[in-house]
Amino acid sequence: MEKIHATTVLGIVHNGTVALGADGQATMGSTVAKSNVRKIRALLGGKILVGFAGSTADAFTLLERFEEKLNAYGGNMKRAAIELAKDWRTDRYLRKLEAMMITANAEEILVISGTGDVLEPENGIAAIGSGGNFAQSAAAALKKHATHLSAEEMVREGLTVAADLCIYTNHNFIIQKVQS
Questions:
Q1: In whole angstroms, what is the distance from residue 96 CA to residue 75 CA?
Q2: 160 marked as part of a ligand binding site
Q3: H/E element, 13
Q4: How far is 155 from 161, CA to CA, in rounded Å?
Q5: Which residues cross the membrane (predicted)?
Q6: Three-state DSSP class for 120?
Q7: Which of 135, 124, 121 is CA-nearest to residue 53?
Q8: Strands annotated E in the chain
């Protein structure tokens, strides 16, 4: 069975707005399996955004668990993320899931991994997936030197750089934002 490679997800906190975007490509081996995968979801009426990279079925399982945690903790994103990471690390079934998530609300952005990590990036930029390092590097330069750009514009440009360089990333972007 060929491994499916998917994606680049980039989130930026800038000037009171959080933007989260992803490309639409899923690649199986050396073939583009689908070019318009939707990897960003809005939860709690659009107050929280989630982006995922990795195995799609695993990501949806984690997304459902995260939404359950959000509901259990009154919409507290950080607490829900920590509780999900605990379960992900200790539960026999969840431990085998291969995906990562970025969650964002109007104030903060978090990266959640299966190793039990909940990371809040220092610079307000989070990226995951095969093109994540390309997108994050571009976004860091933009945030430092092109402060006139919006968070959404920085995400679009960061994803564009990743799509130009990473064979597992395309230019079919979905970008959503949350404002404080």
A1: 26
A2: no
A3: strand 8-14
A4: 10
A5: none
A6: coil
A7: 135
A8: 4-5, 8-14, 17-22, 26-28, 31-34, 40-43, 48-54, 99-104, 109-112, 118-119, 125-129, 174-179
104 labeled part of a ligand binding site:
no
pTM over 0.85: yes
Q: Which of 7, 27, 56, 103 is catalytic?
A: 7
Indicate the DSSP class of residue 134.
H
Placement of tokens 């990471």 in the chain: 85
pLDDT, tens only, 36-62: 989 999 999 999 999 998 777 777 888
Question: Residue type for 157, please?
Answer: E
Identify whether 7 is a catalytic site residue.
Answer: yes
Is 169 annotated in some ligand binding site?
A: yes
pLDDT at 85 over 70: yes
Alpha helices in 12-146 (DSSP H): 56-72, 77-90, 132-145
